[in-house]
Amino acid sequence: MYEKLKIFKNRAGFTMVELMIVCVIVSIGAAVCAFSVRAVMPEIRLKAAVRDMKSDMTLAKLTAIQTGSFATIQFDLANEQYTVFRDDGAGDPAKAGDLVQDAGEPTIKTVNLPPGVDMTASGFGPNAEARFNQLGQSWGAGSVVMTNPGVTNPTGRILRVRTTLIGNLSIQTSLDGNDPWTDLNPPK
Fold it and tell me: Which of 6, 34, 55, 157 is at 20 to 30 A from 91, Cα to Cα?
């Protein structure tokens, strides 16, 4: 029995000081990591909002094709939201495609932008609407510009969703909001 106790006595382990040093190092690493993640969150939110808007514009385009009617996206720049609805006139052919959500026209989706992301401009005309017809073509070429104002943006990037007359959608980026705009994910 004495032999067993002697074996345990010769074994070395970690001291309390060594364990405390490891805890301090891990805590410093976690703090640095959390600070880094917080610094890039505004850009991540901006990219996610732009991707979501492109997806919702694609949804409007596909709804127009599937239902054989118009689908419209109304951009509310003041309230940082947009609404996708089927612009079929709700039984009145004269109101179909009028860019106004009349009574009875179903809302497909209403989206509020995340905090810190702003729609700063819409190139879809004075009423800030985009419309797709039964062929998936856009009512007019245009774009919606999104930024994170008031936030330090390390890349200074400004993003937009752009549509062409034939209904192609793309996400583009610019450093100052003026030309040149380049496709974020160019076709291969």
Answer: 55
